[in-house]
Design brief:
Layout lengths: L3 E4 L5 E6 L22 H12 L8 E6 L8 H13 L4 E5 L8 H7 L4 E6 L6 H7 L9 H12 L5 E2 L9 E3 L1
Parallel strand pairs: 2-3, 3-4, 4-5
Antiparallel strand pairs: 1-2, 5-7, 6-7
Helix pairs in contact: 1-2
The structure holds iron/sulfur cluster (SF4).
Iron/sulfur cluster binds next to loops.
Length: about 180
């Protein structure tokens, strides 16, 4: 599996696919990639370290994804992300997390306070009925303004971008 790549289009960045303990949610109907997991933290770190050592810092911007949420990565991997980003002079780091983890974002921001942290949430669509009864995303908010307000308050994101509502794609990011 290729776990390192470069995105050259808009918002050029390096991207790494790391491995964590596994998605705690696992109910999204379209998802099968949460099988990329391992309960052995040392094995995960060994793999993640090898992937992160490929990062060059060419864009000063790194996106870190895993088959789940950033909070499922082990501490040594998180520390190594910081180390690599400092060494390679990377200022911007992108992480993703399920809505279940919304109350942990502010601490993550403190832990990565040396960096400009961008968080992504897989909302998929503002159609709450479709999102919850078909896609089973586990985000029960039905009002977009309410959703924006509460997430901005809880997660301190600065800007909300809305993309085309395609299932199986992230449609919200706070950059
Ligand atoms: S939260 Fe992400 S990894 Fe977990 S089931 Fe949903 S899409 Fe898959």
């Amino acid at each position: 599996m290729e776990r390192y790549s470069i995105i050259n289009e808009k918002n050029s960045r390096e991207i790494v696919l790391l491995r964590g303990s596994g998605c705690v949610y696992k109910k999204c109907i379209f998802c099968d990639y949460y099988t990329d997991r391992c309960s052995d933290e040392d094995e995960n770190f060994r793999l993640n370290k090898a992937v992160l050592e490929k990062v060059t810092g060419i864009f000063g911007d790194l996106e870190v994804i895993n088959s789940g949420s950033v909070f499922e990565l082990d501490k040594k991997t998180l520390d190594f992300i910081k180390q690599v980003c400092k060494e390679k002079k990377i200022n911007t780091i992108h992480f993703e997390a399920h809505y279940l983890y919304r109350n942990k974002i502010s601490q993550l921001r403190k832990d990565f306070s040396d960096f400009d942290l961008k968080m992504k949430l897989g909302l998929e669509t503002f159609d709450c009925d479709f999102r919850e009864n078909v896609l089973k995303k586990g985000i029960k908010e039905s009002s977009p303004p309410f959703l924006q307000k509460i997430l901005r308050k809880l997660i301190s994101f600065s800007e909300l971008k809305v993309r085309q509502p395609k299932p199986c794609k992230r449609i919200l990011s706070w950059d």
